[in-house]
């Protein structure tokens, strides 16, 4: 009885009080059901058929043929359910069709995102961003990664998981869909979920190699041998082989060490983590660098390592404005005009405060005469900050800011101290100390010019719901606003 594999027949698998029966045909499975029923009568227990189901694995024709059979356990029929959920995983996902599993997990995760909105999101004085991310990693991410070690996904499903992470990050920082997910991953120093799945799979590969279970070890090594013989094209072991080849670890595949203390397993988890990041970061960095609007951010942010900017450790509107400026998604006319369909001509994007020149980041921060009083207050605050003025390097920096030259001033105001995420010491260089001391003044300045602009305009320019023309919106109680407006006249 059962399924022949690795030189023996496997008819059942047990986990706690659950049993999985395996058979090659409907008649064989019904025979196993009869054995279970006979055993239950002898030992005086009952089987809850309402929690049981039959699932078929194979081609579509084989699954359709299995569906047409009747399966009986005692006097009860066992339903056929190709999407039967066991231990939180649909049978279809194990059959190479994980769409329903991913969709269900993503929907559950998205429903919980508002509960973890951070300090830049719904509540400026609420949960700090780092705490929000940590809570997401321990409460929500495990659900999205459940079964990742044994369920390879096609690229479009990996993209759905990464999009779910991007949606959460936008909720945390109070951004909308115009803020790039790739930007947020880099800005917050996070790893993509698709790369984490590969890391988890490589880590689980080690557990299979060193398993103390004779059953697991026998089947695993039998399937690996089939892969070496150019067989088992749909086996999980084929996927592991391709992953090891991708990360130049085929020497491990060739030996499959059984001993957990083998030299090939030394610091395996940390080595795999570094290899996955080394592969993932350049791909995402290239995608980010190809976007001209993010050129300032790419010049400020180290794209070869994961790091967290110090300005996001603070609270208030200034942090939100700075993040939107760094992501090139603040509601300035140059940004809005490039996202309408079709894009608006420069003639429609002149600054509505002064009427002179395109309203872009440079104009907003350094040029617009309507915001000159805020610039003067900012320079005056720097001049009167005695501890700041005593720091090495302050004088040339102050002279540079006093000129309000966009090419040098804008990057300086948007710069932040980047602290590494991988347990390395924080940046304590002379410039880092100076930028950290300057940052509170910068955030207050950015908040003041944003609110001043809103006060002078009365309403904030935005994109209408159809996306083909400019409209207006209002500030929320905390100073933020949306990039698009619903039902508001221009």
Describe what this molecule looks like in 3D.
This protein is mainly alpha-helical and 490 residues long. It folds into three domains: 3-82, no CATH class; 93-290, no CATH class; 310-485, no CATH class. The chain contains 22 helices and 13 strands. The strands form six sheets. A three-stranded mixed β-sheet has the order 12-11-13. It has a two-stranded antiparallel sheet with strand order 1-2. It has a two-stranded antiparallel ribbon with strand order 3-4. A hairpin with a 5-residue loop joins strand 11 (460-464) and strand 12. Helix 4 packs parallel to helix 7, helix 15 (317-326) crosses helix 22 (430-457) and helix 17 crosses helix 21 (406-414). The protein is elongated, with a radius of gyration of 29 Å. The relative contact order is 0.07. The model has no long low-confidence stretch (mean pLDDT 91).
> How many individual domains?
3
Classify the beta-strand content into a percent band: 5-15%
Global shape:
elongated
Rg over alpha carbons: 29 Å
Mean pLDDT: 91
Question: What does this entry show, briefly?
Answer:
With 490 residues, this protein is mainly α. The chain has 22 helices and 13 strands.
Produce the secondary structure layout.
Blueprint: E1 3-5, E2 8-10, E3 12-15, E4 18-21, H1 26-43, H2 60-67, E5 72-73, E6 76-77, E7 85-86, E8 89-90, H3 91-94, H4 99-112, H5 129-139, H6 141-145, H7 155-173, H8 181-187, H9 193-209, H10 214-228, H11 236-246, H12 250-255, H13 268-289, H14 295-300, E9 307-309, H15 317-326, H16 333-339, H17 361-367, H18 372-384, H19 386-389, H20 394-403, H21 406-414, E10 418-420, H22 430-457, E11 460-464, E12 470-473, E13 484-485
Parallel strand pairs: 11-13
Antiparallel strand pairs: 1-2, 3-4, 5-6, 7-8, 9-10, 11-12
Helix pairs in contact: 4-7, 7-8, 9-13, 15-22, 17-21, 18-22
